[in-house]
Amino acid sequence: MEDHEDPLVKALPPATDYLSYLTILEYQLTPARLPTLHRLLQDETLTTNIGWDLVQLLLPLLPASEECLQDVSRLGNPREVILRVSDALMTLHPSDDEGISDHEEQGVPQDSPATSLHAAEKRIPLHILQFNSLVSMLATLHSRIKTKYPSRFIATSLHAALEAYTEYPTVETTAAILEFLRDISGNKRPALPPRNAGEQVVPRVTSGSAPDPEAEPQSDNALSQERILTQRLVQFGLIEVLKAYLLSCTDEQPPGMQWALRVQERLDPGAVTPGLSLIEHFNQAEYAKERDSTMGKIIALSRDFGLDRKTLLQVVLNPVEDHDAPLDFEAMPKSPEDIPLERHGCLILLSARCATAALFGSTEPKIDIPMYPDISIIFANFLGNNEKAAAEEQIAIPGPGPLLDSLLALALTSSHCGPDSAPQAESDFSQLILAMVACVRAPPMRPISRIEKIPSEIFRANSNAQSRYNLILQIFHDEGLKYAKESALNWLKQELLDPPAGPDASSPFTDVESFATLFKSLYSPPPDDFSNLRSSSTQAILIEWIKFTSQEATFYILALNFYYFLCRSEALREKLQLQTLVPVFTENFLLPVKKFAQSIRDDAGVSETVERELDESIRLMGKSAADVVLHVIGEIEKVGWKD
Predict the structure, then answer these.
(1) Residue 1: which residues within 8 A CB-CB, separation 6 or more?
(2) What interhelical angle do 150-167 and 78-90 show, nearest 10?
(3) Looking at 148, 183, 206, which one is the last position of a domain?
(4) pLDDT value of position 157
(5) Which residues constitute the domain of residue 177?
(6) Where is this region: Disordered (predicted)?
(7) What is the tens place of the pLDDT at every residue in 479-517?
(8) If 89 and its partner were Cys, which of 162, 164, 335, 499 is the partner (CB 3.0–4.6 Å)?
(9) Number of structural domains the chain divides into
């Protein structure tokens, strides 16, 4: 079609007014006519008058309409367009057809500039392309607006961008919003070239922009204050992006960054099981390398934005009740001190910086966070008191995997790389270890067996044997600490296998009376109704069956194996005078557990109830667990007691 016949050209103002021209565009604009519109939008007057209304018209036509959208951001009225772009972000959602971008289907000529975008774009959902284009427009618009209070515009844009990003945190949107934050921060460091597919589809404006038609005079003093306020806003935004990004890293296993296990591998190679190195995995798997690359960019930006370790540490050391309410974008503070940095995000960023220093030998200063009191306070602030919940057989962990991973990684780096420190009070030690055990026993961490070595390492690092003894006794004695009994039993075994050396060395663990106290607490009598399954109600049978299968059987096996270990060690039997404790073990523990396990395995009525009310697989799991318990009891009975 000749230019003079094209309705977009024929109707150009002054042939029609601007409102009428927008109506014509609404009905006549097609993908094939986008190059024509792009050429027409180079007229600054036209774009200033219609640009803000073109945003919603052009978004469905992405990626072919990218150049036109950038024209709008470069040449349209920035104060009008920025409001329309922010509104589009706040209402962003997948379209019904969610057409995968395909130039041929849209009728765009193959030699169109839009086809120069990376081929991966063809597989990216439309709403993701729209997000990337919109935040790119925001960056351009902010560079144009000259006002006394630029932070007010930035706050509006940041709110919209974060709202949309938290809904759709993908590789592509993460790359785009990080670039947006870098741009609005005023940081002079040039953008790095794209390092992955996600970064290759981030639109970048290369043409010049028109000045702000409503520019306001700016004083140096006001600008200085505004820069500080803007810096705080981008700090806030970066932390929010970090949280949302890590929560989204679940599409491929293992989830998240696995900081704690990777740091453990680096600092304690003996903890690594052959063939299961996460360090190697993150060096080889493309999606894992992409996560490391993104985290590296976030950490670098945090330094550029002035988020130093002292600031992050100050936030995470504050008790939760001392933190300000979340930022209200509808009532923006005028002082940067009144913009709170979200504490969970600060913890994750602090841990990431410490972990990368340990993993990659970065230029980050030496880890200067002591175990006591800092790490102890941080665990208390983020996990709180778990004893009540543990008594109800639930671990109260107020956060997902990334938070727990960050806590453990921070403790591990402090243990290996931080300054030497000792607990000022025994309660500091016990509370930290119990919080760490609750952390590794939480559902996101429980399947990873070697993660339990982290609290064990911190436990053994306390040189005060009496404090270690008191904690184990507390765990054995307190029903509210059931979740920690398996860990405590492992610590006790290690204490017996590795006693203090030297002729004058002593330990409460090898003292006859002290050990007897531990032993009796460990093998305390069960409740009176422990083994009366047949006479229990259906609901009680189901509860006890599931509890035995999922929780108690593991502890029984561990406790029985510990006793078997003691029986097989002539030196320990003699040193600890175990013969005097045999009746306690037999009457209080072995016989009741044996009777209960036999009822699980052999009572047909109980089994039928479980299968009828639940499932055959659950019945079989219970019987299998009971078989293992009874097998260990059989081995103990074979050994008997031999003088």
Answers:
(1) none
(2) 30
(3) 206
(4) 96
(5) 3-206
(6) 94-114, 188-223
(7) 889 999 999 999 999 999 988 776 556 889 999 999 999
(8) 164
(9) 2
Residue 298 belongs to some domain of the structure: no
Confidence of residue 58 (pLDDT cuts 50, 70, 90): very high
Residue type, 441: R
640 against 158, higher pLDDT: 158
Nearest-10 crossing angle of helices 343-360, 286-304? 110
Taking Cα atoms as reference points, which of 178, 78, 98, 180 lies closest to residue 134? 180
How many C-beta atoms lie closer than 10 Å to residue 62's C-beta?
26
Task: Specify if 621 maps to a domain.
Answer: yes
Mean pLDDT of the chain, nearest integer: 87
Distance in angstroms (rounded) separating the CA atoms of residues 565 and 490: 12
Asked if residue 288 lies in contact with residue 171, where contact means CB atoms within 8 angstroms, the answer is no
Position 546 in a domain: yes
Does the pLDDT value for residue 579 go beyond 60?
A: yes
Beta-carbon contacts of 291 under 8 Å, excluding residues fewer than 6 positions away, are 249, 257, 282
Candidates 158, 207, 163, 205; CA nearest to 184 is: 158
- The pTM of the full predicted model, rounded to 2 decimals, is 0.87
Cα distance from N-terminal residue to C-terminal residue, the chain = 106
Helix or strand run (H / E) with residue 9 = helix 7-10
**Domain's final residue, options 191, 206, 221:** 206
Nearest to 245 by CA among 351, 171, 176: 171
pLDDT tens, residue by residue, 230-241: 999 999 999 999
Q: How far apart are CA 178 and CA 192, in angstroms?
A: 12
Sequence letter at residue 414: S
pLDDT tens, position by position, 94-125: 976 664 444 444 445 444 444 444 444 457 99
Distance between CA 130 and CA 124 in Å, rounded? 10
- For the chain, how many residues are written? 643
Residue 535 three-state SS: coil
* Token couple for 249: 């890293």
Question: pLDDT (tens digit, 9 = 90+) per residue, 507-525?
Answer: 899 999 999 999 999 999 8
Three-state SS string across 309-344, please? HHHHHHHHHCCHHHCCCCCCHHHCCCCHHHCCCCHH
